[in-house]
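Regression test case RT-17, inverse folding.

Input:
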């Protein structure tokens, strides 16, 4: 073990030096003197001879964990908790270990035990609620958060979590009440303003809400990003009321702030795609016999943001045959785990022949461990996965990719009108959005020259205008059984936690088709 890693380990495992056995202290000293492997071997031998030594099991589990040997770390932690099942320190470390491993089902098991041991600790109950939330068990999360409000009183953060879950369920009027309660506690809470706006279809300007928003914008103490959120909210309200000039003005101000905070580098994307094309070429797929898991066919919905991916995911999930994973981190987690010793994609040639199988296994385990229905066939609707289809093809040779496109002007406008996460830097300028859109199409055309049998092209416009015909064809491609109820998801009990939650609750309609016509004079300047 490297010295720096051992120092980090011994500083963070909460073992008091005076309470350590002489043998354990000697092993730690040995590792600190640069004999890490010998110390580890000694610790393994000590644990084998003394399996009931809690300190040794704890140290060995932590040692394995920080060495990225998560399998053996887990074994040692399980042994430790057999010895001391109610030790809060050990339980807390187990929760942290499993959370870091993205095994939230296992983390929940131990968090529930801690909550039983300390039922009056609100901090522990909050962590329990967040784990339910992370596992998409929104009913259980809502129950915990409501209990916290009853016990501790109204807190903006907890009220915000409750409001967002209720909004996701489609109970918009109830959600609005919670957002107003937040504003009474924190008048400058931009998330609450946005919550009210996203839960409302305005027929006229809400002057009271407008006054509150303008007050926040005048406050010099409010961070720029919070003001950007306010401008996005005002843009949506003006757009609802068909005041398109005012809407565009506010959306422009919002995006100017975001662009100044998070500038976009188009050349980096171009270089990345060129590198992928160089690696994932026809020769790579014909000459390289390395394969991942051929027994499963996960579903990937790729395309631009705001192209209807959430709507389509709800349609597929309503079939009852798939697990909706949302915009999943599964691929990112698998890459980070398997390529921590070599750079991806630069050094992919150094990977051993089993890496694609390990990547596939890690990807599958993410769903199993992070979703209540994760043992079902998975849907991953992270639009940016279109960049990584070469890798995914090797991981899952039988994967099913739905290439969901949308009219360029409509799509680019919808992207421009939405506040995205900080890393989505291309979304703050219409020229950049247009370039990204073109790059997406070109990249998909490339993948279709390599493995067209894995890709199903579908446009948002076709989906909503002839739903039955297109979903029948899609379900046949996905090898799913179609039935007339797949479009009846409006009253689904799912909590949709994306910006499209309002639109999804409106069902299949063509209202968003041609939306850009009202803004053509603005868009023609850049797209």
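Golden output:
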């Amino acid at each position: 073990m490297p010295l720096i890693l051992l120092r980090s380990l011994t500083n963070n495992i909460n073992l008091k030096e005076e309470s350590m056995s002489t043998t354990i202290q000697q092993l730690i000293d040995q590792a600190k003197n640069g004999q890490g492997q010998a110390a580890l071997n000694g610790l393994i031998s000590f644990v084998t001879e003394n399996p009931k030594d809690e300190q040794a099991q704890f140290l060995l589990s932590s040692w394995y964990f920080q060495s990225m040997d998560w399998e053996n770390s887990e074994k040692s932690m399980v042994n430790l908790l057999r010895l001391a099942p109610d030790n809060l320190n050990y339980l807390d470390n187990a929760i942290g270990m499993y959370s870091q491993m993205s095994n939230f089902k296992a983390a929940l098991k131990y968090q529930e035990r801690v909550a039983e041991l300390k039922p009056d600790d609100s901090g522990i109950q909050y962590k329990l609620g967040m784990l339910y939330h992370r596992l998409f068990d929104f009913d259980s999360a809502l129950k915990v958060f409501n209990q916290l409000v009853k016990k501790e009183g109204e807190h903006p953060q907890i009220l915000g979590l409750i409001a967002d879950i209720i909004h996701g369920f489609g109970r918009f009027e109830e959600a609005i009440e919670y957002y107003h309660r937040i504003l009474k506690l924190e008048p400058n809470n931009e998330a609450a303003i946005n919550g009210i706006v996203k839960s409302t279809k305005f027929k006229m300007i809400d002057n009271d809400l407008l006054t509150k928003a303008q007050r926040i914008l005048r406050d010099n103490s409010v961070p720029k990003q919070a003001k950007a959120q306010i401008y996005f909210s005002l843009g949506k309200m003006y757009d609802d009321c068909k005041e398109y000039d005012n809407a565009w003005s506010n959306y422009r101000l919002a995006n100017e702030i975001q662009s100044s905070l998070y500038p976009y580098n188009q050349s980096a994307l171009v270089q990345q795609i060129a590198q992928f094309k160089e690696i994932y070429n026809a020769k790579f797929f014909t000459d390289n016999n390395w394969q991942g898991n051929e027994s499963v066919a996960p579903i990937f919905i790729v395309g631009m943001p705001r192209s209807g991916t959430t709507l389509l995911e709800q349609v597929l999930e309503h079939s009852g045959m798939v697990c909706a994973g949302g915009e999943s981190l599964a691929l990112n987690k698998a890459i980070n785990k398997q390529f921590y010793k070599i750079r991806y994609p630069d050094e992919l040639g150094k990977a051993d022949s089993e890496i694609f199988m390990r990547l596939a296994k890690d990807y599958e385990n993410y769903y199993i461990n992070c979703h209540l229905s994760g043992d079902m066939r998975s849907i991953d609707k992270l639009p940016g996965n279109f960049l990584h289809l070469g890798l995914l093809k090797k991981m899952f040779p039988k994967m099913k990719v739905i290439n969901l496109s949308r009219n360029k002007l409509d799509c680019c406008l919808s992207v421009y009108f939405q506040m995205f996460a900080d890393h989505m830097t291309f979304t703050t300028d219409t020229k950049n959005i247009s370039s990204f859109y073109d790059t997406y199409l070109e990249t998909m055309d490339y993948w279709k020259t390599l493995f067209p049998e894995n890709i199903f092209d579908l446009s948002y416009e076709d989906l909503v205008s002839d739903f039955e015909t297109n979903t029948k064809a899609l379900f046949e491609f996905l090898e799913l059984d179609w039935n007339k109820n797949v479009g009846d998801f409006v009253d689904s009990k799912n909590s949709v936690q994306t910006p499209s939650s309002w639109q999804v609750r409106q069902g299949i309609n063509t209202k968003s088709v041609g939306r850009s016509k009202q803004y053509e004079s603005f868009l023609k300047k850049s797209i």
